[in-house]
Amino acid sequence: MGAAPGEDCAVLALAEDEVFITGTDPVTGAVKDIGKLAVHVAVNDIAASGGEPIGLLISALLPEGTEEGELKEMARQVGGECEKLQIQLLGGHTEVTGAVNRPILTVTGIGKAKKQAFLQTGGAKAGQDLVMTKWAGMEGGSIIAKEKEEELKTRYPLSFIRDAQQMDGFLSVLPESRIAAVRGASAMHDVTEGGIFGALWEMASAAGTGLEVDLKKIPIRQEIVEICNFYEINPYMLTSTGSLLIATDKGHDLVRELEKEGIPAAVIGKLTEGNDRVILNDGEKRFLEPAKPDELYKTITF
């Protein structure tokens, strides 16, 4: 049973050899295209666990003064992305409240996987390659380019800003997660809050390993570099929904398979014995620290 007026619950059935996978995320740093982003943030969590997404539950808290047209646009975005990904909007809640001054969407993703097929972030092992898909800071850069277009136009041409904004066309990690799952990935982690540095720390921490990563091998687009320079923020600590971090024994083979499907990817380093989590940059060593507040919040005021 799916969502319907007056129905407070959705009901799902699984096969005997399947398990549920669930995850919940709030979307607080974006206003424009918040509905689109909310879908992918939740679905990517399911994908990174090796599961197939089934549907979403969304709770929308909207500030007083929100117009009906704004809510309709959010709903249009959510419905459009669910249709593209072939998943069901299972239900949710919408409320206008003085408790918030910006829209907040809290999204619960629900997926399924075979009992022996789902992956844990802690499944990564020392000695394995670390593969990263797409680019560092892509989601955060796209949000900033939309929210701060007028400021950015004082330095950059509109075509340049538009290129950054359109990186939201790469938000889904479903294609690469499916390829990685059948190509021997032992762990996957979607790169969200805290950027690639945060994701690296979280994967190594969950696995109980160290890591060594070459900063120059982390893929990044020039649009993101320029935007981050403009606001004096670190692109490697900027939210990157749409990028997937993968631990695997044969990283270069996986990169070739991903590139055959048009998915940019690179081997950026290895997991190591011990607890040292090291970023190398032209011979200099930097030791990673636990993820800090995302750099996006240095540019977006509430």
Describe this structure in words.
With 302 residues, the protein is an alpha+beta fold. It has 9 helices and 11 strands. The protein folds into 2 domains: 18-114, 60s Ribosomal Protein L30, Chain: A (2-Layer Sandwich), CATH 3.30.1330.10; 121-298, Phosphoribosyl-aminoimidazole Synthetase, Chain A, domain 2, CATH 3.90.650. The chain has helices at residues 34-48, 68-85, 138-147, 149-152, 158-165, 174-182, 195-207, 222-231, 251-260, and strands at residues 18-27, 52-62, 88-96, 104-114, 129-133, 185-190, 210-214, 244-248, 265-272, 277-281, 284-287. The strands form 2 sheets. The chain has a 7-stranded mixed β-sheet, sandwiched between helices. β2, α2 and β3 form a beta-alpha-beta unit. The protein starts with 17 loop residues before the first strand and ends in a 15-residue tail after the last strand. The mean pLDDT is 93.
Approximately how much helix is present in the residues?
A: 25-40%
Mean pLDDT: 93
Strand fraction: 25-35%
CATH architecture of the largest domain: Alpha-Beta Complex
* Beta strand count: 11
Short description:
The chain is built from nine helices and eleven strands. The protein is of the alpha+beta class. It has two domains: 18-114, 2-Layer Sandwich (60s Ribosomal Protein L30, Chain: A); 121-298, Phosphoribosyl-aminoimidazole Synthetase, Chain A, domain 2 (Alpha-Beta Complex).
Descriptors:
about 300 residues, alpha+beta, 60s Ribosomal Protein L30, Chain: A, Phosphoribosyl-aminoimidazole Synthetase, Chain A, domain 2, 2 domains, seven-stranded mixed β-sheet, four-stranded mixed β-sheet, about 30% helix
